[in-house]
Write the structure tokens for this entry.
Amino acid sequence: MNTNATSNEKKPPYGIIVILMAGAFVAFLNSTLLNIALPSISADFKVDPSVGQWLVTGYMLVNGIMIPTSAFLIQKYSTRRLFITAMSLFVAGTLMAGIAHSFPILLLSRMIQASGSSIMMPVLMNFLLTSFPIERRGSAMGIFGLIMTFAPAIGPTLSGYIVEHYEWRMLFYVVSPFAIMVLVLAIFKLKDKKEKTDIHIDRLSVLLSSLGFGGLLYGFSSAGTKGWSSIHVYGTLIIGLIALIFFVLRQLKMTAPMLEFRIFKYPLFSLSAIITVVVNIALFSAMLLMPMYIQTVRGISPFHSGLLLLPGAIIMGIMSPITGRLFDKYGARTLALVGLALTAFTTYMFSQLSMTTTITTLVIIYSLRMFGMSMVMMPIMTNGLNELPSRMNPHGTALNNTLSQVSGAIGSAVMITIMSQRTKTHGEELAQEAMQKMSNTTTQPSPEAIATMQEQLGMKAMLEGINDAFLISVGIVIVALVLAMFVKRAVPPKELDEQTGPTEMNEAVE
């Protein structure tokens, strides 16, 4: 037997992986690119900021609806066909958005973008799982982690610079050439080696999935701005929950489900999914609360606030491949325990913010937090996926990505709610103290002095509300830390892999 030939056959298709990762990078970057530009876009189209927010909410909803269908799509179609379709949709949406002259067209363009980008992450993750042996998956997923974390993290900084110096359309003009280049490379370089599979999607499952995950995402994402008492919030949450229950029950009864929930019988996958959800909720505390503190409380511009958070993003990006190699060598448990302990400590430090906290201190704490987070997310997720047989990989990646979307929305809603409620409480307490001090003085302050004092009290109340939300986040991280103690190195069941064979994998070669 020719050993060299065998090793060449098993060599991962790095050319394809580079193309897939380039497409994923552009798509992930786009997910946060518009956040800072929303006020400019709302003013340009003369729409209310709450309407303009739909450019982000709509993008997220399409992701939440499309990702659960990715397991079926990966099994039905080849990597080449899926990626070229996804990239074509993304390019079409980007070009449309750049020339959109009405808000509805821009919103439609963003949703077309999202329909393409939502397919890329599961396709890339599944391709990496099937291209690398289990002992090298950590390194592969570490590179993926670099893209997944670094691209969205630099989005606000890049967006802040562009919006400050150019019109918002430049955001799409900058992305378009790179997206087109990746699409052209994919058309000429990706080739198929996938046998035709005769499976059909259940339309009722798609409907229930869309209502279920879409309802939950919309409900939780709206809670921060509309409040939990709004019918838009609790109404969509109830509809989403009921639809999701029926969706899960239907999948459990089907022999070929759209999304296989039976993979939760694998304990390490279930544990990794729970930890991922908990960590995602905690992760959004810094992603949401830090910009509020930096921009609203401290009055730093969006671009400079993005620069302030950039070192943490760079550290997380650098650490992702290193963490992948450490995962292959030591497993997920040690990395997760160290990472979560560091995350808990730095999150507590964020709960002690003041009006005089130095910029250097903020950069150091945030960077250390990102360093800790880099040791948790991808190792835990990869360890859980490693326990699954090959035929379950598409379902595992789809469920992980869906849970990340939903838990991110939950984290946003919870943190915004806690911050808002505590800000209100602290505001009332500070106002009472100020009134008592004023009643004890003989001279009445001028209206200008009262207005200045009210503004200062409002900022101080928000600061305390942010600190309280960070303190709650510490408790959430500790929950994940306790769960991480039960993590073990996962090994896929060999007998299932042998039964399924390579024909059920989504293979592609150069």
Q: What stands out?
A: The radius of gyration is 24 Å. Confidence is low (pLDDT under 50) at residues 1-9, 495-510.
